[in-house]
């Protein structure tokens, strides 16, 4: 049993690291924070959240236009 525990822990850590690094679990954190702050608040759908996230990342703050990635 102990021989399988270490690889499982390593796999769990690797999965956590990859999802944190890629931002894959940002939506889950957003939902948790929003519900904790105000349980009656509207929670964005995953699609709405991702659109907003991309817009905020690439928008030019001076005029609100989309800069693109490059």
Describe it.
Helices cover 66% and strands 0% of the residues. It contains three helices and no strands. The chain starts with a helix and ends in a 12-residue tail after the last helix. The model has no long low-confidence stretch (mean pLDDT 84).
Briefly say what this structure is.
The protein has 70 residues and is mainly alpha-helical. The protein is built from three helices and no strands.
What are the SSEs and their pairings?
Layout: H1 2-22, H2 26-37, H3 46-58
Shape: flat
| Radius of gyration, in angstroms, nearest whole number | 18 Å
Uncertain regions: pLDDT < 50 for 5+ in a row?
Answer: none
Succession of helices and strands: HHH
Mean pLDDT: 84
Main sheet: strands, sense, barrel: none
Relative helix content: 55-70%
Give the beta-strand count: 0
Bin the strand percentage.
under 5%
Number of helices: 3
What distance lies between the first and last C-alpha atoms, to the nearest angstrom? 49 Å
Structural class assignment: mainly alpha
List the keywords.
single chain, 70 residues, mainly alpha, flat
């Amino acid at each position: 049993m102990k021989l399988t525990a270490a690889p499982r822990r390593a796999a769990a850590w690797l999965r956590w690291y990859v999802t944190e690094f890629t931002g894959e679990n940002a939506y889950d954190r957003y939902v948790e924070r929003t519900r904790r702050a105000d349980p009656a608040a509207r929670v964005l759908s995953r699609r709405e959240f991702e659109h907003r996230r991309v817009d905020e990342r690439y928008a030019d703050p001076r005029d609100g236009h989309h800069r693109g990635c490059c």
